Amino acid sequence: MVATTTARPVSNVAWPAALGAAAAAGLGYWFYMSPYSQAFGPFPYRGAGNGKVVALTFDDGPNEPYTSQIAEFLADRGVRATFFQVGRAVLRYRSLTRALVTSGHVVGNHGFTHEFTNYLTRRTLEEDIRKGQAALAAAGVRPALYRPPWLLRTPALRKVVAKHGLTAISGEFCHPFEVFQPRPEMIAARVLAKVRPGSIVIFHDGFDGHDGDRASTVTAARLVVDRLSRDGFSFATVDELLGVPPYQICPAGQAV
Ligand SMILES: [Zn+2]
């Protein structure tokens, strides 16, 4: 017996409304969260591209053992990178944050909580940035670079960032599904397909400031470093790539 179904009529009105809603959502994403949107002030996602230089960045840590594994292979190869760290994770691994700076890496502020709702109002955004700076200061670091969690920008961000002496930094994600930790070769292949002179690549050594498996990311980043090195690329920290200060100078004249 063949089952029969009654097809539901498709409303001619619903489609334009649905498409309109999808377009509005896409537009909203582009304005507020796209790595490339400059709608709320400068948000550099790459450098000028003079020379085969790229900046590797690692967000959401510290998160062990992955942050240390990354630091280890970078040290083996004489490569320096930029780590945008979450304040509440820094408080768990202060000595590791300090060791990264001592090794020549740059550490930036990636907020204190990494909780999405804390970035929606000016008051909570500012509190999160201030607490992030305080956590990093407790580790001996006074960053001048800030990467907003989720790359979320609101109209308040520009003023708050300027008030706290920070430069907002974007970048390009290494792989859209990095959070699911696909095979390292897949992550690396996508980075290598997209990377150009001046690229700022975003990896995640942590997971929103709490523990999470980042083994694929560690291997992928190593594969990327080795391949780009063979192809004649060199590596810079974000401040070097953009020509901005990495740290705020404290009264004693010390950068960190
Ligand atoms: Zn993040």
Structure overview:
With 256 residues, the chain is of the alpha/beta class. It is built from nine helices and eight strands. Strands 1, 2, 3, 6, 7 and 8 form a six-stranded parallel sheet that branches. Strand 4, helix 6 and strand 5 (167-168) form a beta-alpha-beta unit. The longest helix has 20 residues, at 14-33. Bound molecules: zinc ion. Zinc ion binds next to loops.
Overall 3D geometry? globular
Structural category: alpha/beta
What is the CA-CA span between the terminal residues? 78 Å
Q: Bin the strand percentage.
A: 5-15%
Radius of gyration: 20 Å
Give me the count of strands. 8
Question: Bound compounds, please?
Answer: zinc ion
> What average pLDDT do the residues reach?
90
- Outline the low-pLDDT stretches: 1-7
Give helix % range. Answer: 25-40%
If helices are DSSP runs of H or I spanning 4 or more residues, what is the number of helices? 9
Biggest pleated sheet:
6 strands, parallel
Order of helices and strands: HEHEHHEHEHEEHEHEH
Write the layout of secondary structure elements.
Elements: H1 14-33, E1 53-59, H2 66-77, E2 82-85, H3 87-90, H4 94-102, E3 106-109, H5 122-138, E4 145-146, H6 157-163, E5 167-168, E6 172-173, H7 184-194, E7 200-204, H8 215-230, E8 234-235, H9 238-242
Parallel strand pairs: 1-2, 1-7, 1-8, 2-3, 4-5, 6-7
Zinc ion is lined by residues 59-60, 110, 114, 149.
Write out key terms for the chains shown:
single chain; 256 residues; alpha/beta; 6-stranded parallel β-sheet; two-stranded parallel ribbon; 9 helices; globular; binds zinc ion
